[in-house]
Specification:
single chain; 97 residues; mainly alpha; 91% helix
């Protein structure tokens, strides 16, 4: 009889539980929306950075090509000057002899 009385008093108290699934779903939706927005913003930023990087690489490749041509020209010029110096030394030797 005591068990029955405990059960009746328990059921009479009512339930104070109120489901919170709606609030949780709202929070999760808000988090999902914010993450989608952040991903979109980061994607735009990354694409812009990639475009800038590719432009920089293109400019650097042109610069390297121009400088390589300059080095090649200077190397040829140094070779020609070396030959010219040797010829001048031989001419000087012939003149002094």
């Amino acid at each position: 009889d005591a068990d029955r009385q405990d059960l009746v008093s328990f059921l009479a108290q009512g339930s104070a539980y109120a489901p919170q699934s709606g609030a949780i779903t709202g929070i999760l939706k808000q988090l999902g929306d914010q993450m989608s927005k952040d991903l979109s913003d980061l994607t735009v930023t990354e694409e812009s950075s990639l475009k800038t990087f590719e432009e920089l690489i293109g400019a650097k490749k042109k610069e390297v090509a121009a400088l390589s041509q300059t080095v090649e020209t200077k190397t040829v010029q140094i070779g020609e000057l070396g030959v010219s110096i040797v010829q001048m030394k031989e001419d000087l030797s012939d003149t002094q002899a």
